[in-house]
Amino acid sequence: MKKQLQLLALFLLLGLFKGYSQNLPDVWDFGATQLDASQYNNMLTVDVINSWYDASITPGSSGNVLPDFTTGILSWTGGGNDRLRTTNTDLTRYDENINDYPDFKGRIYVNSSGATGRYLNLDLNEDDVVTVVARSQNGNGNIHFDYVADSNLQNDAFAVGTEPTELTFVAKEAGNYHIYDDTDKPSYFRVVRKSATYASITGNLDVTAAPGIPDGYSIIFTNAAGKTWSSTVAGGTYNVDLPVGYQYDLSLEGADGYSISSATTLEVTESTSSFDVSIKDNNTSAAAEAGKTYTYSFADGSEIPQTSYTSLRYDTFQTNDGIFTINSNTNDESLKFGYHDSTHGLVMFPGNSVDMMVAGNATISFIVCTYGSATDAVFEFTDKDGNVLGSIPGQNIGGADAYASSFTYSGPAGKITATLKSDNFPTAEVYIHGLVIENAAAIEPSNGLADVWDFGAEQLDESQYNNRLTVDIINSWYDESITPGSSGNVLPDFTAGVLSWIGGGNDRLRTTNTNLTRYDENVSSDVFTGRVYVNSRGATGRYMSITLSEDDEVSLWVLGQDGVGKLHFEYVADPSIQNDVADVGGEVTQVNFVAKEGGTYHIYDAADKPSYFRIIRKSATYVDLSGNVDLTEAAGIPDNYSINFTNEAGKTWNVTPSGGTYQVSLPVGYQYSLSLEDANGYIISNGTTLEVTEATTSYDINIQKVEIYTVSGSIIGLGDHIQDLSLSFIPDPDANSIYVPQPVLDKDASTYTVQLEPGIDYTIQAEGVNDYYIPDNILQISGDTNHNITFDPKPLQEVTIVANGLTDAQKADLVLTFTNLNESGYSYTFSDISAVALRDGVYKVSASGLDKYPLQLAPTSNLTIQGEAVTKTLDFENVTNWTFDDVVITNDTEFYKGLTFTGSIKNEKAKGHLVGGSGGTIEVPLQPGQKMIVTYYYAADFNIDGGDAITTNSGSTSQLEHVTYVYPGTEAGSAVISINATTYITNIEVIDVVPFSAIITVGVDKDYQTINGALDAISRMDRPNDERVTVLIDPGNYEEMLVINENNITLKNAASIPSIELTNQGVDIADNAVRITSYYGYGYNYYSQGTDNKWNAEALAVNKANGSQPYDNVSGTTNGSYWDATLVVSADGFIAEDLIIENSFNQYISKKESEDIVVMVSGNRGERPTGYGNTSVQNRSFVERAAAIGIAGGSDKVILYKCRIVGRQDSFYGGSDARVVIYKGAMMGAVDYIFGGMTAVFYKSDLVLNTSDVSSDAAYITAAQQDGGRGFLMYETNIISTVPGVNTASSQGAKPGYFGRPWQANTSEVVFFKTYIDTSSYPGYEGESLINPEGWKSSLGGESEKMYEYGTIEASGVDHSADRVSWSTVLDSPVLKDGTDITTFNFTKGNDGWDPLPALVANDDTDNDGILDIDDNCVSTPNSDQADMDGDGIGDVCDDSDGDGLVDSEDHCPNSPEGAVVDVFGCEVFNLAADNYNITVHDVRCNGNNDGYISISAEDTSYTYNVSVTGADTGSASLSSSNGFSANIENLKAGTYAICITIDSRDNYEQCFSVTIEGPAPLAAYSSVNYSNNTVTFSLSGSKAYSIDHNGETISTTQSSIVLDLKPGKNKFAIYTNSDCQGKVFKEVLMSDDVVLFPNPTMGELKVYINGDDTNIDVSLIDLSGREYYSGNMDIPSDRVLNLDLTNYSNGVYFLLLKSEKVSKSLKVIKL
């Protein structure tokens, strides 16, 4: 009975009964914090938590993993290695690590990323509210609240960062819910469950502003969880019961065209009982504001709640500002719009519409998607009356993602509507990322100054510019919660006058002006202080928008990150009128544009990541140009002729002369081309170009008639092709004719007419009909003539096709297309390959018609026809690898290169993936002994031949997954991939299976001759459990680019004593070395480069034959390039042993590069040498991005064992979530050469600074990019230089460099632990540390306090830890800021405890003598016999009897005293303690005096010291017992002195020091006058106290900066100190009295009022060029008004200069 009572008590304690809440919220706090019992049911206590653990575990002990548990309605299902981490030491736990969050004492830490099988389970009632406090380890958490019975009904997800975040969920149904993180390692601090309390709410409906609203409409209440309640309106009222404690969004259902005009949100509390609603007709929506840009994102939840459209669709949705409303316009639930996901944004369907309010003229941009199938989708715009205004594309399928599709509206303010339409895809999903409505700004009338927007808030000369940006204006762009002037902030959209920025949410303001709110200080310019950095390449949807007047000039200072920028200046209303494009390189460039029309322009980069430093808008200055038109020689000219003036921007001004004169207003500053219009047969004879300046006011034009006659005739031989014809008549150049004939064609009648000059040979040229030619194409006339133009077809040459690899049936299906490469638009298709005939030309050959066979045309050279028949051999190859990126596949495609499709199967070509819909199938042909590898990502649910479902919900396009299927058939057949739900497949590959072999060899006479051959064999092996394969590679040079995409591969040097040494300036290698090398680098294209960005022999042959390279080399991670890496690792368990992995791009010209054709492209470093072995590419001028190794993100457990990595810039890349261990070896590089987001341990490796002899070429070892988790651990590494002449062509060793610079601010991590830093031998830096005292730079991505250093060993003997930059962290104990001990295991362990280093150390044999280091009595010198004659445990070859570092066999003095300092021969050298001498310098009192002196003393009193001082003066002294070993050397002037000390009886000893005796610093005073508030600021230096005389008054100050008020007139200042020898500084400031001009502008009379009491004044008048019109002294009358007469002066701008004792003014005068 007692046990039963105890069990019942336990049940009550654990709260196992669901009704326990008693209306109080239940709380589970994982630190056992007891919340207020009057407000909560505390479900967890110390005893409850301790009861979860096995009885054998001591309660309150640490080091215990968390078991599964159940407490009331909450249970935990874990993975066996999860942890309770709590500072409550009464609790059984793992440790006390809760990351110092004072609000909480404990957390459940889930020790696996994305572990959906580890979850909290809650049994809930409908509308229960659950609050979870959680964080994620890496900051990319995604916490789910998943209804177990039906995830489609509810599976809410919220992003969670590294800080504890309160997440609130509401149960839509009763039942069990799972809480888990599908991407990161979450921690749960507290869970609270609260039962819903309901309020009954009623309200009245005001429909005064909603005439005609339908009967039976409903009010919809939607809470934050996406659950809706509906109340049908009856009798003008409604009633609904709602859970309290929520804010509800109100909307209408069944009332299209109407919306709620009163508040659309309602906070429901227990006291809420009524809420009235007003409704309006949407035609009276909110008013838009002129000049304001409205930006809406549909991807981030800021507008459309992030509830999937699979569970929440909308009839209508209106933004809170009322500016736009989306309408479904349908009762079909499947065609209603909703939120898709954060990648696609809003999903709409044809028939859906968007109502928008505009303030008048406006530009509407839909940010459309590259994904989808509705290739004809458009938005059709209508006004409020339904009139069609125009349309724009509603998608950009296959093009750039996030493309801004823009429509320009011109009209009154009000509502316009955009309706989505698609004729061919009426039910297709169309994805919209966002919407931007730019209401045209009112252009301010020009004040004659240029507007400038400087993104560092630099204030330009106010006499020339209107500064549109200040510190306050820029800081106002940011949310008010952000501290002004802080860093780490992304740039929001902004508007500053007529300029607006529309960005992507992750763009950056980068500025050295630390008063500005910014991202970081990385400006990339020595001239500018700030830039807007666009953090997306080719993002046309991120742009500067500027409203301009016609002819406004816009200047931009801009650069492109990759140097390949294409900067567009696009007239939004009609890009066909103006869409100028300027090339932008990697250096700051000034780009100029001129607006051809008034309106809105978008400025964006379609190819690169641009940075905008400054933008200047200048209104055009016009000049009225007039002149006479001389028609003396132009008899009969038509009355309606006109003159065209065309400037360099391509804009034309047309003027019709009248009465023999013309007048036109033209912008100044351009050269214009002059021509006639409607005056055929007449020319301008006195010059057709004119430079227009402000002084250009007249220009006479002479027109001359040209003798011409009419030629007419028929056009024969073209047939229907005449519709494509255009004709031109080109005069013989020797005739010097400037008359341009203008032929007129009547294509329907096949006739032409043209007027020509007589006696001139004209060549008749035809365009548009290139298949024809004119045999008789020379024409000369003497009068009116009839001349027929006859065309003949160009002769065709027979082409014999040899189709290798095809059967006769396949040849019958083959269709060949020949595209003329030199004549756009001319291609010829033949379905009968025996009947191919082509005219002369160069043709690209393509094949089709074979898609039902697994065949494709091999890379093929172009076909050249040159006047004779040819034979073309085409090779067809079997397709075993399908990439889906070469053609468009639609749901109607039946076959693709041998694959057979049924149902919903299509591709997204630009993304290179196949999209399968439910019910779709893919049939793949297979042969016996083959296996199929299917690669997929993002989302997948499919099976192969009816097997188990293969699924993923990773949501990531960078995380590739694959499944292997071995074909079981004994004869040819196929496998069917059946799609169960939406599936993204990136690749299908079929390969022949070969037997597994644990070891294979590579070499001249080995299993395989190339490493790629061996890797291909491994990919074909049957390795069901990824059994490891070791590739033994014979020593030698292997020019190959490798991709490791199979798990558990080892590449190993097969030499018995392997080497990784370079020789001959880095060109050659040691005899026992294996070098894997390639030569691609940024800024160049290569004929040898295939479409996979790798070296390809077929591509080289074809491209050489064609004389061109169609593929563009890419850098970064694009297309698997990894910065053109020689070795790419995209697999787990890769090991490299004793290899040299090199990119020779910045080392030497390799043999293959010397045989390649290298093409310079944007970003190149100049023409590269071509001779094999040329090392000039090591020069700093050639250095660019070129990786030796690239380890893809997610590649796990990679080991580089005693390898050498060779490169210069970006040598060694490792992506996020990759774990890498580098054991010993050498890492060579210069610029950011170890980079990326990997977790890596460099264990006792050499970090080799591989720089050139250029003095500015300093190394940056690391560029870390982690956004969480662990980073780089440089564990007991050695920072050394290359060896000149051996592994580098440099003649000098490296100069001091840097530990690195963070690539990502704040979160990137690098730890230098017990680093040995060698000294530099570079001239000027001899003996200094190879690491600059600063240690780190922030010039790449910003600052991170996680740049650590501990226990550094400086060979220079100088401790620079105090000199490191302030934002880095120098540790005084081996513990990181987050409490992590610096151990290799803490970096490698991950989630599975990976710890390879102990085994690597235990199995190391450094000297390769067959004895492991742990057993070897001489580790570094081979001694397989282990001889030890003296039995001291040290091998004889390593014995060092006196311990001086020289082995006995090389020591001239093997018995030197212990601790003695020895020379290179091992013999003792006399030395004294480093601190033996105390030297104090006493400065002179004034410069020029000789009252300085030096005090010197010695600590060791065993010797007599002789001191000599030389320099500006000389002196000497002796230190002995007679003077207490202390003396002064006196009477010394200021200067530098050498102090040298010798010792009696120690002839070889001398120690010298250099000291400086200084005088007082010179007095310096700098002034800055603020005329707006009549003050002057003095900045003072040189003393601690200063005296300032101001017009006879004396002021004393100890401040280094002082502000003084200025008095009218002259202000005389004298500044001095209490030291006469510092002298005085004098300054005079004139505070000018006020001067007023009126009227200004003036027609002539100008009055000048001069304030003050001066009696006369100097007056000058000059123009803009500085020309002086008047200069003299004038008396100032009693009324203080000077009268000036400018009547006879020319109209224009002048400057009036006034100068007197109290006046100094320069005033602008405008004469009309």
From TrEMBL:
Any coiled-coil regions, as ranges: none
Protein keywords: Aspartyl esterase, Hydrolase, Signal
SUPFAM superfamilies assigned to the protein according to its UniProt record, in alphabetical order: Pectin lyase-like (SSF51126), TSP type-3 repeat (SSF103647)
GO biological process terms on file: cell adhesion; cell wall modification; pectin catabolic process
Presence of keyword Signal: yes
Domain Secretion system C-terminal sorting: 1637-1709
Domain Pectinesterase catalytic: 1176-1390
InterPro entries: Pectin_lyas_fold, Pectin_lyase_fold/virulence, Pectinesterase_cat, Secre_tail, Thrombospondin_3-like_rpt, TSP_type-3_rpt
Signal peptide segment: 1-23
One MF annotation (Gene Ontology) recorded for this entry: pectinesterase activity
Family assignment from sequence similarity: Belongs to the pectinesterase family.
Annotated protein name in UniProt: Pectinesterase catalytic domain-containing protein
Organism, scientific name: Christiangramia fulva
The organism's taxonomic lineage, starting at the top: Bacteria, Pseudomonadati, Bacteroidota, Flavobacteriia, Flavobacteriales
